[in-house]
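pasting for ref
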Amino acid sequence: MAHSAFWWKVMDGLAKAMYERGLAEEPKAQTWSIDGMAAESLGWPLLRFQAMVKSSGQLVPVKAYQLR
């Protein structure tokens, strides 16, 4: 059976805990409106960012037909 989670509450709880430990500047989760902005802020290539944070990172296999 799957579990339901309210992800905004989870993120806010993590942000608050990180703030209390001095690991974040404020007790509120910050999000980026678009992937390109997030990737640029982190200094990552867009495809790497999408692969790290999404289940559908639009990955392109290299030599896919050579896999056995």
